[in-house]
Write a structure and sequence with these properties.
Elements: H1 2-43, H2 53-56, H3 61-69, H4 77-90, E1 96-101, E2 104-109, H5 112-119, H6 135-138, H7 148-158, H8 164-186, E3 194-195, H9 197-213, H10 220-244, H11 252-255, H12 259-289, H13 296-299, H14 318-323, H15 332-341, H16 347-377, H17 380-394, H18 404-409, H19 411-423, E4 429-433, E5 438-440, E6 443-445, E7 450-454, H20 455-458, H21 478-481, H22 502-519, E8 520-524, E9 533-535, E10 539-541, E11 546-551
Parallel strand pairs: 2-7
Antiparallel strand pairs: 1-2, 3-11, 4-7, 5-6, 8-11, 9-10
Helix pairs in contact: 8-9, 8-22, 9-16, 10-12, 12-16, 15-16, 16-19, 16-22, 17-19
């Protein structure tokens, strides 16, 4: 009995001691965190912007602002974007301002001069903490979400996928998708105004499916699967943005307990199943091509349960590896498979990069196509010049197969695209978490702080763009561009972490626009003043843009 009592006493004392240690550890961590926050607030006190005690109450200031201006949209992405846009205009003279999202201070850089130190930095390459909310979906090791040595290695490995020889191989795919787009749009050509975005989105998704994954969207079964993937993609983006605007859900343990968190998990699971299935099918097809007796067939079969790949090594001539795979039309996935066979990438690495490419390359293209057609519809003089250039290149007939030579001649269309991306900045902001202090003019932003480059505001700086709201493609004439600040136009970001796929994007956009505009004139019942901008990840409108299509001479339908 005495031994039992002694054991019980020791157990009780041990539990008390453990509880005291845990309490002391928690208190120390809390004090450390509070001190860090105090130091952060103190170091940012001279940077202008709304802040103060409401940040300590964990109440985003934009919510109070939107509640007072438009209660129906309080706390929405619409009001948040309007608020940030207003702050960038107010604080443009200094080029920098701060806000608080709950207890998180965020510094916005809204001029080319203040954005340059961050975008050109070779050390501050880590994406903002908001991107951590994408990890369940895109992983932490993909090109969008990784940083440091892993990002540098993946960037180097994936760059050959966008070599000019590879892009040339993508031209037949883009041409085919453009022809299908024209046929679908011909069914919508009438006296009525329609929302073209769903049709343009399907075209962009089909293009990215074939170029990224080698998946042809022709059969009823594949079309249904891809469009289900598109719906899940849209749902994932919406859920992600709702989470971004609710900082208290940024903790995974909190978010996973919410109904939205559960739904997000289900959607992500379906997205992963789709891309994994495509990877497996592509690998089986590749293995079959190498079944003549060499080891390629054996190496080409994926271990779906497999572990990680070996340490990353420098690639060989990977542009040649991609263009000479033996596939009828090589895809981005073939380059990843090449690295898998070398032991450089794991299956998970492949899936993360494919998911990233699909996410980054689909919606952006569809939205840019929509904005460009709208810009031409409300600027008929510019549209006439585009048609004149197209007629001079293709004759007064619909464009057939568009070649690289054709694309290089479409210089005015190129300027129209750039001016569209300036005014309707598709990715309005780019975020980084500082891994070391950053000097911005007279301010030093400390390590650990989140910074956002507000590209939408940079593109409207009167210091670099006379009459910035006017649509003038000739701003991008070579003689005018040479005078511009190198960071005054950043639709694809800039510096070491710029968009790796920008050449592909411009090629795709030019070919698809040439196909559409050789066949149609475009009109809109909307004015720019009618638009209510809604920025989640991309710049959109709250209500759809309506376009009317009128067939031109020599239309191909």
């Amino acid at each position: 009995v005495a031994s039992v009592r002694t054991y019980s006493l020791w157990l009780w004392l041990s539990c008390r001691a453990l509880a005291a240690l845990l309490l002391a550890y928690g208190a120390a961590k809390l004090v450390q965190w509070c001190w860090h926050q105090y130091e952060l607030f103190r170091s940012l006190k001279d940077i202008p912007g709304p802040g103060g005690c409401c940040a300590l109450l964990f109440t985003p200031r934009y919510f109070l602002h939107s509640l007072s201006t438009n209660p129906k949209r309080a706390g929405s992405t619409v009001e948040f974007f309007q608020w940030i846009r207003g702050l960038s205009e107010i604080h443009r003279p200094k080029g920098v301002f701060k806000i608080y999202a709950g207890l998180y201070p965020i510094v916005f850089l809204c001029t080319a001069e203040t954005a340059e130190p961050l975008l050109s930095s070779t050390s501050n390459l880590k994406k903002s903490v908001i991107y951590d909310n994408m990890h369940p979906w895109l992983g932490s090791g993909g090109l969008l979400t990784s940083y440091g040595d892993r990002w540098r290695q993946h960037r180097k490995l994936l760059t050959p996928a966008f070599h000019f020889r590879v892009l040339d191989n993508f031209l037949p795919i883009i041409n085919e998708q453009g022809d299908r787009l024209v046929q679908e749009l011909s069914q919508l050509a009438s006296e009525t105004y329609v929302n073209l975005f769903p049709t343009l989105s399907k075209c962009a998704l089909s293009t990215i499916c074939e170029t990224a994954m080698g998946l042809k969207v022709h059969s009823k079964e594949s079309t249904s699967a891809v469009y289900e993937y598109e719906r899940d993609l849209e749902t994932a983006i919406k859920l992600f943005m709702k989470r971004v605007l609710q900082p208290w859900t940024w903790l995974d343990v909190v978010y996973s307990a919410t109904s939205r968190g559960v739904k997000f998990g289900e959607v992500v699971k379906r997205l992963h199943c789709f891309t994994t299935k495509v990877i497996v099918e592509r690998q089986k097809a590749e293995a079959a091509r190498h079944s003549a007796g060499n080891n390629e067939a054996k190496e080409g079969v994926l271990d779906i349960d497999g572990g990680g790949g070996k340490a990353l090594v420098a690639p060989h001539d990977t542009a040649s590896a991609l263009t000479e795979t033996g596939a009828e039309r090589p895809a981005f996935l073939d380059l990843l498979s090449h690295y898998y066979r070398q032991g450089i990438f794991s299956v998970e690495d492949m899936r993360q990069e494919v998911d990233t490419f699909m996410f980054a390359g689909h919606d952006t293209s569809a939205q840019t196509l929509t904005w460009t057609l709208f810009a031409l519809a409300i600027n008929p003089g510019v549209q006439r010049k585009v048609h004149a250039e197209l007629d001079s290149v293709f004759g007064k007939r619909a464009a057939g197969d568009i070649t690289k030579s054709h694309v290089t001649k479409l210089t005015y269309l190129d300027r129209v695209l750039k001016e569209t991306m300036r005014i309707f900045t598709i990715v309005p902001w780019v975020g980084r978490s500082l891994t070391e202090p950053l000097k911005i003019g007279n301010y030093t932003i400390p390590e650990g702080c989140t910074c956002y480059v507000f590209a939408y505001g940079i593109h409207r700086d009167p210091a670099h763009y006379t009459d910035p709201e006017a649509f003038d493609p000739d701003r991008f004439l070579p003689e005018n561009c040479s005078r511009n600040h190198p960071f005054a136009f950043v639709p694809f970001s800039a510096g070491p972490r710029n968009c790796i796929g920008q050449k592909f994007a411009m090629l795709e956009l030019k070919v698809l626009l040439a196909k559409v505009l050789t066949n149609f004139r475009v009109f809109s019942c909307n004015n720019r003043d009618d638009l209510l901008f809604d920025a989640d990840i991309l710049l959109r409108t709250k209500r759809p843009i309506k376009i009317r299509l009128q067939p031109r001479h020599g239309a191909s339908f």
